[in-house]
Design brief:
single chain; alpha/beta; 8 strands; globular; binds phosphoenolpyruvate
Length: 252
C-alpha cells in the first residue's frame, strides 16, 4: 500500500451475465460493502450499467469498461464518456489487454480515450502489462513504462487517474507473478509516475490485476505501491469479491 492512499478494489465483469444475474450479483456486493475499508467499484457491461447502479446503491462506485475517444458522433456500437458519466459512472477502464488484443487498441488511442474520459469528468483506469514472451525476454518493465508514456494524458494525475498493472499472461489463467515481481513492476510504475507528474504521481493509485483471488489477495495487497486490485473472474462471485476487498491491510 501507499501510505495515506485509500485502496480501490474494482470488479471488471467483462461480457458476462444476464440482467437478472447482474442485479443479484450487485445486491450481493452491496450487502457486504459497508464493512469494506477499501473503495469498491463495479464495471458491468454497458446494458447493465443503469440497473446495476440501482442495485449497488450509494456505497459502491460504478464504472464503464471502455469509451470512445470522441465526445459524440457517428460511431455505431460505441459509447461516449459523457454517456457513462450521465448514467452515474465515475470511472472507466481503458486500454485493457482484451481491448488492445481484440480491437487493436494501441497506446495513442488509449491516451485519446483517457483524454475524452477526463473531459467528461470520469477517472480513467489505464491498464498496462506485458505478454509472457515479453516477460521471458526480460522486457516487462520496459514494456510497461513505454505503455505508460504512450497511454497517459497530461491531465491524468490532476484528475487522480488510476493505473492497473495487468500482466497479460496472468489474466484469467490462475497464474500470477511472484510477489517480488509484482513489487518490482509497481515500483517502476511509481517511479515513472513521479518522473512525469512529480509529487502528484506519488499519490496515484496503482492496482494489480491478473488472477487475484481471495487466497492470494492479502499478500499482494500488502506489497509496496499496490493500492488495490482490478479483479475479473473472482468479481463474478460476490463473496469472493468482498473477500478480496477484506484483504486490504489494516492500516488502509
Ligand atoms: C482482468 O481482466 O482485468 C482481470 C484481472 O481478470 P482476472 O481477474 O480474471 O485474471
Amino acid at each position: 500500500m501507499t501510505p495515506g492512499v485509500r485502496p480501490l478494489i474494482a470488479g471488471n465483469w467483462k461480457m458476462h451475465g444476464t440482467l437478472r444475474e447482474a442485479a443479484a450479483l450487485a445486491e450481493g456486493v452491496r450487502a457486504g460493502a459497508a464493512a469494506s475499508r477499501a473503495e469498491l467499484l463495479i464495471c458491468p457491461p454497458f446494458p447493465h450499467l443503469v440497473p446495476v447502479a440501482g442495485a449497488l446503491g450509494d456505497g459502491v462506485g460504478l464504472g464503464g469498461q471502455d469509451c470512445h475517444a470522441a465526445a459524440r458522433g457517428a460511431h455505431t456500437g460505441d459509447v461516449a464518456a459523457a454517456m457513462l458519466r450521465d448514467v452515474g459512472a465515475t470511472y472507466v477502464i481503458l486500454g485493457h489487454s482484451e481491448r488492445r488484443a481484440d480491437h487493436g487498441e494501441a497506446d495513442a488511442l488509449v491516451r485519446a480515450k483517457a483524454e475524452a474520459a477526463l473531459a467528461a469528468g470520469l477517472v480513467p483506469i489505464v491498464c498496462v502489462g506485458e505478454s509472457e514472451a515479453q516477460r521471458l525476454a526480460g522486457a516487462a518493465e520496459a514494456v510497461v513504462t513505454g505503455q505508460l508514456d504512450g497511454s497517459l494524458p497530461d491531465g491524468f494525475a490532476a484528475a487522480g487517474g488510476v493505473v492497473a498493472y495487468e500482466p497479460v499472461w496472468a489474466i484469467g489463467t490462475g497464474r500470477t507473478p511472484t510477489e517480488a515481481e509484482i513489487a518490482a513492476i509497481h515500483a517502476a510504475i511509481r517511479a515513472n509516475l513521479e518522473g512525469r507528474f512529480g509529487e502528484a504521481g506519488a499519490g496515484l493509485r496503482i492496482l494489480y490485476g491478473g488472477s487475484v483471488k481471495p487466497g492470494n489477495a492479502k499478500g499482494i495487497l500488502a506489497l509496496p505501491h499496490v493500492d488495490g486490485a482490478l479483479v475479473g473472474g473472482a468479481s463474478l462471485v460476490a463473496a469472493d469479491f468482498l473477500a478480496i476487498a477484506a484483504g486490504v491491510p489494516d492500516a488502509a
